[in-house]
Specification:
alpha/beta, TIM Barrel, 9-stranded mixed sheet
Length: 256
């Protein structure tokens, strides 16, 4: 009887360990979030785990926009993201979300000079003590970045988005929060039909490599529809990149 009981426990253990991660909106990344009808708040209300803002150092301030033509709108990082985040954290007792176990990654994609813009960002964030002294918010730098060898020279609350195809030194990896890449480097699949097996294997190898380093994975310039979302979940992609907040939220909700 004892041997049978141990055998059953072993089977349960194997079954539990083989179960895939349960995906929720904590695995959702709001790509170019500032283009949404309600920047920050729309993704935040859906409980997104990651929100992206592109910034430029323009006339001495951090302006949000995808390209230089959008700078005339004078939308600032403070007004669209940092200010609203500070309000949410005050309301939620020092946490981004009411659920203190739920965290947010604010990915800031630098479009102008890497070092000058990042220096300005650090200076700006230091004015928001609640944002840089909480475990519920991670500031992750993407886009134009300093050389990886300089990552460690930045404050502990500044993390970096690494490049999936690159190799990093151990001390550099400690400052890297996740690894991202252009999906088109690995596949021309646009979400219709099955992902070609050769391309699937290549993607899986890269994802497994990142996970072995303890890093999460995101692909940009990727298909953005239910068929592709399901495929990325099957592959174990940690953050699903989307421009469709409502659609992905519903899709992930239906998985529960």
């Amino acid at each position: 009887m004892r041997r049978s009981f141990i055998f059953v426990l072993s089977l349960l253990s194997i079954s539990c360990s083989s179960q895939k991660t349960v995906y929720t909106t904590a695995n959702a990344h709001s790509h170019n979030d500032y283009e949404q009808s309600s920047p920050f708040y729309m993704a935040w209300q859906k409980g997104f785990g990651s929100i992206e803002a592109d910034i430029w150092l323009h006339k001495g301030q951090l302006t949000v926009g995808h390209d230089s033509a959008q700078l005339a709108r004078n939308r600032t990082l403070d007004s669209l993201y940092l200010g609203p985040l500070a309000v949410c954290m005050k309301k939620n007792g020092g946490h981004v979300y009411a659920d203190s176990n739920h965290s947010l990654q604010l990915m800031i994609d630098i479009k102008s000079d890497a070092i000058l813009t990042l220096d300005k960002l650090v200076e700006t964030l230091q004015q928001y003590s609640s944002l840089i002294h909480t475990s519920s918010l991670k500031i992750v730098i993407s886009g134009s970045r300093p050389p990886a060898a300089q990552f460690t020279s930045y404050p502990s609350w500044i993390r970096f988005d690494g490049e999936l195809r690159k190799e990093y030194q151990p001390q550099e990896l400690e400052k890297i929060e996740m690894l991202s890449d252009n999906f088109a480097r690995y596949s021309k699949w646009r979400g219709k039909g099955d992902l070609p097996e050769k391309e699937r294997k290549l993607l899986q190898q890269q994802i497994d490599k990142a996970h072995a380093l303890g890093k999460k994975v995101r692909f940009w310039n990727a298909p953005d529809m239910p068929e592709s979302w399901k495929t990325f979940i099957d592959l174990g992609v940690d953050y699903i990149n989307t421009d469709y907040i409502e659609g992905l939220s519903q899709f992930l909700g239906d998985l529960q």
